[in-house]
Amino acid sequence: MALYQKTATELLGLLSSGQVTSEELTRAYAERIANIDKQVGAYLRVDVDGALEQARVIDARRKRGEKLGLLAGLPVAVKDLLTARGDLATCASRMLENYRATYDSTVVAKLRAADAVLLGRTNMDEFAMGGSTENSAFQKTRNPWDLERTPGGSSGGAAACVAADEACLSIGTDTGGSIRQPAALCGVTGLKPTYGSVSRYGLIAFASSLDQAGPLARTAEDAALLLEAIAGHDPQDATSINAPVPQYSQTVREPLKGLTLGLVREHFAAGLESETEAAVREAIKVYESLGARVKEVSFPHAKYGVAVYYIIAPCEASSNLARYDGIHYGRRTDEAKVAAELDAERKELLAAGKKREAETLDTSLVRLYRKSRAEGFGPEVKRRIMLGTYALSSGYYDAYYLKALKVRRLIRQDYDAAFQQGIDLIAGPCTAGPAFKLGEKVDDPLAMYLVDLYTVSANLAGVGGISIPCGFSKTGLPIGLQLQAPPLEEDKLLRAAHMFQTATDWHTRRPALA
Amino acid sequence: MTESTPPYTIVIGLETHVQLQTETKLFCGCSTKFGAPPNTQTCPVCTGHPGTLPVMNRRAFELSLRTATALNCNIATFTKWDRKQYYYPDLPKGYQISQYDLPFSYEGWLEISDPKDRFPPKKVRIIRAHLEEDAGKSMHDEHAGKADSKIDLNRTGTPLLEIVTHPDMRSPAEAKAYLTELKLLLTHLGVSDCNMQEGSLRVDANVNLHLDTPAGKVATPIVEIKNMNSFRAVEKAVAYEAERQYAEWQETGRKLGDPGVFKRTFGWDDVKNRTHVQREKEESADYRYFPDPDLVPVTVTEERIAAVRAGLGELPAQVRTRLEGSYGLTAYDSDVIVNQGRAFIEYFTTAADTGGDGKTASNWLQQDVLRVMGEQNLTIENYPVPAAALGDLLKLVRGGEVDTSRGRQVLQRMFDTGESAEAAMRSLGIEKVDESALVALCEELVAANPKLVADVKAGKMQAAGSFVGQAKKKNPNANPGRVKDLCLEIIARLP
Q: Which residue in A81, A83, A401 is closest to B290 by CB distance?
């Protein structure tokens, strides 16, 4: 077995016993990426030299007998919307194509503190808006199980790089399912933590009240390791929860006794593909064989999840993305062209006797805004900015945003009621079906929005969720089981996922990549 | 109605933006110090870099609570932050973090009065006070076709308290009195330096007129005046605007509520002494306010509100009442002293307590101390004569140890040398003349001046002044009042 095929937990053992150096490991991944990523397209940038340098420093410190951090020498891939000082943070957008961050995001700072090796930056839907990574302004990412299919999104690169053995640990972000859905479609383990448990400082905002960074890995054990490294209170994030970080990497192997799983009736209804349903039900039987009890529950407000999400997320996005105006940083349109264009328009209007129109022509500043944003943002980002701007407008606020907030509260109450009934974890499908074809939904935004059907509620409720591989379609595509837990009970998610992975081998299967 | 009384009532509401005296900005750790080179007091947070998040400055909230409590406002137990969204180059996030529908304080009042009695004391009601972040500064240089705009983001994120009054003021003098009292309160509390030149206090005035017409009561369209950089400018601008609106009303008859009548924004031109239109039609700007998801709501307990109230101490209005009650000052005198600020009040009370009389201390402070402070551009903190030392001098003056005019020389000496009152008197050779010596001197003068004696007897009292003059020549320490009294007594005893 090649080094890059091993789990992070296994590699950590090899590193600490001195059988492998971080430099060797980093080189192995660099070679794997060089060989395979032309097909997959998971990475936007790989900093081989920088990574090797970090690895050598860690190796030297290990040699000196220094105490190293939790991830001592393990390479980690990072989604390209977390800032790292001095490095680009493009959000896969033309707008930030040349934007170099001046500070470390808390997640990146914690990775550094844990002695991880920052291997490279992964592709994503522009500003994390999308479910197929096709909204990246720079490149397509392909599903390693079928290169004609999407890896899911928005953390498509983050999931695909793990599935293709181009990283053992990967950081994604999840606003409506953007870690769990690509994890499901790529056959890897992906966890969205409770809102507030991982700092958002330096996570370039899409929708602030929903965004959470989290780990993607092959196994629950590895995800536990990475989550432990990045979680924790951050005084720079006012929404960060002030609670101690449990030692997930220590507790993950403890099986849950007397586990009660809740099956949401509404999640097994029309729209769920039969192959996926069968795999999920089979997975639940595995849990029953491990001693779990199963109860059916109803989430009466689940059906509003996507609608509520597509009000709240665009509203926040329209505001969060206002700062990309071409003035202070990021893309600015050609000012000389703007001036010439306005001049020509003015002359034309005056020649046509349209004095009034000539006077009310854009100022050069307004035209600079318009053009910079028109050039910098892709169509999906523009669509969401328009949706959000509309919904927050005077006269519509109450009908859309305020109403959505109220329904959001009801969705949370569905969870609370279930957990109060003695349900430990909600179990169900992560997606309605396996990976779809690239291009299949790009012209149908509504169909694309529905890929979040089973995942958005966790973001709206602020609870944690995990997707783990639970089977394959007849065509050989992975299927994901989603588990969701009460707030701050990530340890339960990870332990339950590990229980499953000790009883099954879906997570060990590998795509056949040449 | 007489000609001097205008046939209208001016209705004025004021909006003030006050920069709070915090070390750091409202949502990041950058310094708020004024005058640093452009863009040197900035960080990724206040320049709106991708991924950054705001964290509330607790000190700014504390100062705001103090201010609102002193303004008799209700304090909300639950308050939140909202984003006010608009595009401008000096607003790097594309929104300002402010408070929209749930400000931290509301419904207060500030009492104003006029020591010159031009209007009776009144309470100006405050609608709300809320906390928000300041924007940056834009500098436009558009001469000679070389349009060039520069942005300084040092100010971006400085905490601002916006205080909005009801339209309760009825004259330029009332508007000025409100601002004077507000500034006094804010500086007294130490929450702001209220320096208008540096922009730490900014005022907008909403002005219109109420007229009685044969057709009933009528209001003129509301105008918002901006760009006023002193209280005097506010007074002048409001007065100018009232006359302008009246003239416009007479000419056009346009009134508030007419179709096509919008609130307009005028700027004040301090050089030309006039207002001019800045925005003809107040566009119904849609700021798309919504709660800032990056910040958590702030809750304030009743206990905390009570603690803030208890910690306020004596406010300017209460100090004035105390000075009038305990020190026997007039409203005018107490106003002058309190307006000088906390340190000056303390100086006064120490000098008055040591000297034994408020009125004397008030006179000396106003006629001597304030005059010298003005001439030499001193503050009371660096005025070299300590309050107790001045009090000692006042005690000597009141005890007749030294007369007022020589007392002034003593004070000058104390000012120059730092000597105590007694030491300065010794240095100047001033000592009280023994009563028997003084009697002897007066008897000698009366005997030597039969002509003056005759004048006094004839009722020409100015002749008594000549005795004083002669006495001072013979002995500079002779107390003029006592000399005069003694001479008159001796003359009265003459046959």
A: A401
What is the separation, in whole angstroms, between the first and last Cα of chain A? 16
CATH fold of A3-266+273-299+420-508: Amidase signature (AS) enzymes (3.90.1300)
Which residues, given as ranges, of chain A have pLDDT below 50? none
pLDDT at B489 (0 to 100):
87
Q: What is the pLDDT of residues A304-341, one digit of tens each?
A: 999 999 999 999 999 999 999 999 999 999 999 999 99
Annotated catalytic residue A178: yes
* Domains of chain B in sequence order: 8-299 (no CATH), 314-427 (no CATH), 435-493 (1.10.10)
Q: What is the pLDDT of residue A87?
A: 97
Position B27 scores a pLDDT of: 98
Name the token pair of A231: 């979680």
**Are the CB atoms for A40 and A252 separated by under 8 Å?**
no
Task: Give the 3-state secondary structure of residue A491.
Answer: helix
Q: What chain A residue is nearest to B149 in terms of C-alpha separation?
A: A365
Q: Is A91 exposed, middle or buried (0-12, 13-18, 19+ CB in 10 A)?
A: buried
The answer to whether A327 contacts B89, with C-beta atoms less than 8 Å apart, is yes
Q: Which helix (H) or strand (E) holds A171?
A: strand A169-174
- B218-231 confidence digits (pLDDT tens): 999 999 999 899 99
* From-to residues of CATH 3.90.1300.10 in chain A: 3-266+273-299+420-508
The residue with tokens 């990497």 is A249
* Residue A354, both tokens: 């349209």
Q: Which residues of chain B have pLDDT under 50?
A: 1-3
Q: What's the pTM?
A: 0.91
Residues of B in contact with A90 (CB under 8 A): none
Distances (CA, A) of B16 to A12, A378, A445, B161, B209: 61, 42, 48, 8, 21
Tell me the DSSP string of B7-47.
SEEEEEEEEEEEE---SB-SSSS-B--TTPPTTSS--TTTT
**Tens digit of each residue's pLDDT (9 = 90 or more) over A133-184:** 999 999 999 999 999 999 999 999 999 999 999 999 999 999 999 999 999 9
pLDDT at B282: 53
Helices (H) and strands (E) in chain A, counts: 18, 11
Closest listed residue to residue B16, CA positions, set B110, B86, B97: B110
pLDDT of residue B283: 58
Round to whole Å and give the CA distance between A262 and A447.
27
Confidence (pLDDT) at B4: 59
Kindly state the tokens that stand for B351: 């000098």
Check residue A405 and give its pLDDT: 97
Query: Which residues in A have their CB inside 8 Å of a CB on B?
Result: 81-83, 89, 91, 96, 99, 101-103, 105, 200-205, 207-209, 235-239, 315-316, 318-319, 322-323, 325, 327-329, 364-365, 369, 389, 392-394, 397, 401
Which is catalytic among the residues A105, A132, A154, A199? A154
At A111, list the tokens: 């990775």
- pLDDT for the residue numbered B146: 60
Q: Which residues lie closer than 8 Å to A205 by C-beta, 6 or more apart?
A: A211, A316, A320, B50, B51, B294
Cα–Cα distances (Å) from A272 to A277, A294, A333, A448, A453, in that order, read 6, 20, 45, 15, 10
Q: How far apart are CA B264 and CA B244, in angstroms?
A: 13
Note the ipTM here: 0.96
Q: Which of A102, A207, A237 sits opposite B53 (nearest CB)?
A: A237
Helix-, strand-, coil-residue percentages of chain A, each rounded to 5: 45, 15, 40
